[in-house]
């Protein structure tokens, strides 16, 4: 096996809205995640024209309200992360804990104190915090009463939020990311941009305007961070799905090139290179738009150019295949985007195609394009885990998935890729973002809680817990 760098950041990743709970405690306001019903129909429900972010507990269950009660049990959980040997822990700050409605001028001190404790608990075990500033948890007020990220007022609200948290924690936290999976809005703008059909999701102009506002906001965060400490590392975070042409048909090859540009690269090109890419004109024209339709100022474009991100964080779960010439292809689901079934790949319980080689390709594609450090901040297998009577979980399928992806990482390092670290998703079981289920489990740690909210939330170590412990201890040599 290739030797991983000595300072390689092995760890795990979570998001506040999926595990914290305590959704009304200590002054926290509601977030858009609190308004997402649980269950496999979650995405269909929020795409209904009449969905207006109303929380109706007589009709739906809202598992994000409780999560796995990390708000009260974070010390126990971080201790378990330390037992695995985590070098880092990626988590997010719930915006509505700091600014309950998003538009206040003064932060909620109780919310800041909570993250003081979380950060200090990490540092107690020499775990480097890696913080996502905005991870699918826009304050609900900003979606309902401001129309989400298409409203330029959100730039100043985010700037205030970023300034508060960066100023509070920069002496203890070196690694940051601005927006989680920012490009996911190409297919589903509800979580990243706070847009649903009732407030403009179906008009692509709103999606592109929201992205622009986020690009400006991201650069403002980089500016704030670097003025506090030039050594802070502030990255972007994209959802990456390695994309193949189904065959050698030049039509499909061109479609694959364009899908890569439009989905995998567009947001990264702006945030890493500091300017809109040349193909933006073609991309906008596909929706009957042009650049002049967007509200962009010279000052904003200069800010984007002057303050690009320091590294690229990305999620990788699956690859995608493109076939545009036939209409009767078998389809598969995936992480917010599906595609044509790839006959060479197997799929997870939820239909996501498993492709470790695609991760090596992704790492090479991203590094060739940007020549900036890469950080795999999400990767993992959502599966149904069945404990025995003694709470043992033999999750060899998860170990096999992660082992193959780590081998692909080693191959990419051999290829010359500068890879900072690896934080598998859902290092502890939590509420799924796509389905609102607990039964779709990713963790090394099992949480006794089902889709209906039944269970005592006790934590149990899976077989993969001990496997990952050895991986970290051996710096990737023992798989």
From TrEMBL:
The active site is at 378 (nucleophile). Pfam families: Glyco_hydro_1 (PF00232). GO terms for cellular component: cytosol. One of its GO terms (molecular function) is 6-phospho-beta-glucosidase activity. Keywords: Glycosidase, Hydrolase. Signal peptide: none annotated. InterPro entries: GH, GH_1_N_CS, Glyco_hydro_1, Glyco_hydro_1_AS. It is an enzyme of class 3 (hydrolase). The keyword Hydrolase applies. The keyword Zinc does not apply. Its EC number is 3.2.1.86. GO terms for biological process: carbohydrate catabolic process. Belongs to the glycosyl hydrolase 1 family. This is 6-phospho-beta-glucosidase.
């Amino acid at each position: 096996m290739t030797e991983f760098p000595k300072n390689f950041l092995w760890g795990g990743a979570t998001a506040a809205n999926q595990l914290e709970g305590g959704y009304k405690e200590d002054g926290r306001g509601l977030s858009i995640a609190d308004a997402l019903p649980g269950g496999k129909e979650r995405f269909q429900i929020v795409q209904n024209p009449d969905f207006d972010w109303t929380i109706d507990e007589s009709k739906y269950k809202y598992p994000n309200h409780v999560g796995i009660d990390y708000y009260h049990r974070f010390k126990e959980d971080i201790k378990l992360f330390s037992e695995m040997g985590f070098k880092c822990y990626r988590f997010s700050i719930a915006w509505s804990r700091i600014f309950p409605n998003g538009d206040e001028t003064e932060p909620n001190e109780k919310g800041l104190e909570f993250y003081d404790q979380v950060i200090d608990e990490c540092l107690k075990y020499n775990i480097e915090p890696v913080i996502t500033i905005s991870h699918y948890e826009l304050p609900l007020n900003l979606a309902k009463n401001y129309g989400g990220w298409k409203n330029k007022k959100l730039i100043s609200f985010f700037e205030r939020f970023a300034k508060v948290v960066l100023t509070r924690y920069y002496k203890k936290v070196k690694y940051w990311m601005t927006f989680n999976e920012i490009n996911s809005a190409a297919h589903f703008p509800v979580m990243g941009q706070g847009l649903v059909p009732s407030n403009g999701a179906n008009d692509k102009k709103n999606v592109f305007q929201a992205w622009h506002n986020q690009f400006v906001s991201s650069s403002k965060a980089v500016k704030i961070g670097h003025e506090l400490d030039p050594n802070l590392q502030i990255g972007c975070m994209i959802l990456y799905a390695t994309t193949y042409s189904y065959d050698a048909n030049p039509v499909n090859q061109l479609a694959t090139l364009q899908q890569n540009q439009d989905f995998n690269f567009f947001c990264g090109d702006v945030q890493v290179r500091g300017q809109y890419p040349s193909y933006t004109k073609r991309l906008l024209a596909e929706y009957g738009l042009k650049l002049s339709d967007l509200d962009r100022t010279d000052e904003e474009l200069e800010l984007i150019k002057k303050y690009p991100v320091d590294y690229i964080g990305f999620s990788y779960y699956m690859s995608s295949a493109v076939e545009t010439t036939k209409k009767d292809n078998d389809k598969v689901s995936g992480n917010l985007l599906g595609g044509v079934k790839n006959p060479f790949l197997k799929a997870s319980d939820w239909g996501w195609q498993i492709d470790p080689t695609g991760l090596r390709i992704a790492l090479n594609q991203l590094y060739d394009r940007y020549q900036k450090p890469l950080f795999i901040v999400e990767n993992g297998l959502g599966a149904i885990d069945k404990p025995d009577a003694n709470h043992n979980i033999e999750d060899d399928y998860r170990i096999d998935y992660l082992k193959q992806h780590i081998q692909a990482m080693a191959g990419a390092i051999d290829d010359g890729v500068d890879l900072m670290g690896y934080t598998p998703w859902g290092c502890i079981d939590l509420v799924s973002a796509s389905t609102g289920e607990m039964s779709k489990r990713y963790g090394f740690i099992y949480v006794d809680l089902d889709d209906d909210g039944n269970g005592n939330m006790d934590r149990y170590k899976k077989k993969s817990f001990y496997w990952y412990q050895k991986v970290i201890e051996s710096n990737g040599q023992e798989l």
